[in-house]
Amino acid sequence: MSRILDQRILLLVISFSASVQSTKVLSKWKKCGDPECEKAMSRVQATTDYLGPDCRYLNFKTGEEIIVYSKLSRENENLWTGSKGKDFGYFPRDAVEVEEVLIGEEVEVLTKETDFLCLNEDKYNFE
């Protein structure tokens, strides 16, 4: 009986740590094309296939075009945010090559907690 209880507790701990990880703030700052982060910053092309670790990340294949809307800064400068069709999410900057810069100057703004939530089927996934 105690063995089953131990297994259930372990599963609960694993489940809790996975949900904390997927809502983790990746950076307190980001760079955008405008203060609201609505302007597209650049157009990039994937140089490699990428499959992200959770639903906050953008998955893509080599050669696909991505529009970049923000770049995390300070603590985590290697992640950019962009869209490919209806899909939106984070991806590593070294997985793409910039084809066209669409803005003249970047603006650094604070991130929001909602920047790091999963957006599934037009609903926020609060874990």
Automatic annotation (TrEMBL):
Keyword Signal: yes
Topology of this chain in the membrane: Single-pass membrane protein
Source taxon at top rank: Eukaryota
SUPFAM superfamilies in the record: SH3-domain
Major location (coarse): endoplasmic reticulum
The keyword Glycoprotein is assigned to this record: yes
Endpoints of the signal sequence: 1-22
SMART domains, A to Z: SH3
Biological process annotations from GO: endoplasmic reticulum to Golgi vesicle-mediated transport; protein secretion; vesicle cargo loading
Pfam families in the cross-refs: SH3_2
PANTHER family: MELANOMA INHIBITORY ACTIVITY PROTEIN 2 (PTHR23158:SF38), MELANOMA INHIBITORY ACTIVITY-RELATED (PTHR23158)
Name of the protein this chain belongs to: MIA2 protein
Organism this protein belongs to: Melospiza melodia
